[in-house]
Write a structure and sequence with these properties.
single chain; two-stranded antiparallel ribbon; binds adenosine-5'-diphosphate; 8 helices; histidine kinase
């Protein structure tokens, strides 16, 4: 709490008064701290791949370039790290557009069934490689949702890719859609993966928050996927939740508004 005292002299009065202004600085301080943390995180996340790239280039310079096998491996790492930086910058740009509400939502009626079928198809190859069974369950008569299809694709890609990423070979991932009692459409992505400890669950939607930074990085993660998904879902007046049992599996579900009035089931 910040208190500012300002002496005032009222017109015609002999006495000087005081005006006290009480300001709640805790909220401001919290925002300042978050902003500083964010900048520190971004710098760190960009510096890490740059350091790797630099050290591999130096190793090439120091002679590795003359050993074809080694050189090929080093170049591969260098390229992977550059790709990671590109992904990070894309995610950051997207978040900043969402923050500034510059990212327009081109909402229209969207068929949940089609959208989920396509999303699942995009991961079929990756799942086959990891021997993960990926199943889609759609309850009957799901209304169409009023949403931006491209943005929804991104939410689904982020959630399904997490589910696949954090599920060991041979596990399973399920995508489920149902209509809730209040009419909202709920989409859930469940996996039988490594799960998230209870103590981390409350912070998991924060930018750059990861349970295991090294693991997330080695899987190519930016730590921004869930934050982006949350922003997009909120932009649709929906809610997103995560529930998880450590070492057992995770369920992320979000809601979307149905198309209002008319032939909602078409
Ligand atoms: P990342 O790019 O690191 O995957 P996200 O924002 O998508 O970033 O997720 C944040 C963190 O939440 C991850 O680093 C991981 O620790 C945890 N997480 C997200 N989804 C899952 C999941 N399905 N199973 C286990 N952990 C998960």
């Amino acid at each position: 709490l910040k208190i500012t005292l300002t002496p005032v002299k009222l017109k015609g009065a002999h006495q000087t008064g005081m005006v006290a202004v009480l300001e709640d600085v805790t909220e401001q301080e919290k925002l300042d701290r978050q902003r500083k943390d964010f900048v520190a995180n971004v710098s760190h996340e960009l510096r890490t791949p740059l350091t790797t790239i630099k050290s591999y280039l130096e190793a090439l310079d120091d002679g590795a370039i003359n050993e074809p096998e080694l050189a090929t491996r080093f170049l591969k790492v260098t390229r992977q790290e550059a790709d990671r930086m590109t992904r990070l910058i894309q995610d950051l740009l997207q978040l900043s557009r969402l923050d500034a509400q510059k990212s327009k939502f081109a909402k229209k009626p969207v068929s949940v069934e089609l959208m989920l079928e396509e999303a699942v198809d995009r991961f079929s190859f990756q799942c086959k490689q990891k021997n993960i069974s990926l199943t889609l369950y759609i309850h009957e008569r799901i209304p169409r949702v009023y949403a931006d299809p491209d943005k929804l694709d991104q939410v689904l890609d982020n959630l399904i890719s997490n589910a696949v990423k954090y599920t060991p070979d041979g596990g399973s991932v399920a995508v489920v859609a149902q209509e809730k009692a209040d009419g909202m459409v709920e989409i859930g992505v469940a996996d039988t993966g490594i799960g998230i400890p209870k103590k981390d669950l409350g912070r998991i939607f924060e930018r750059f928050y990861r349970v295991d930074k090294a693991r997330s990085r080695s899987m190519g993660g930016t730590g921004l996927g869930l934050s982006i998904a949350q922003q997009i879902v909120h932009g649709h007046q929906g809610e997103i939740e995560i529930d998880s049992v450590y070492k057992k599996g995770t369920l992320v579900s979000f809601t979307l508004p149905p198309v209002s009035g008319g032939n909602v089931h078409e």
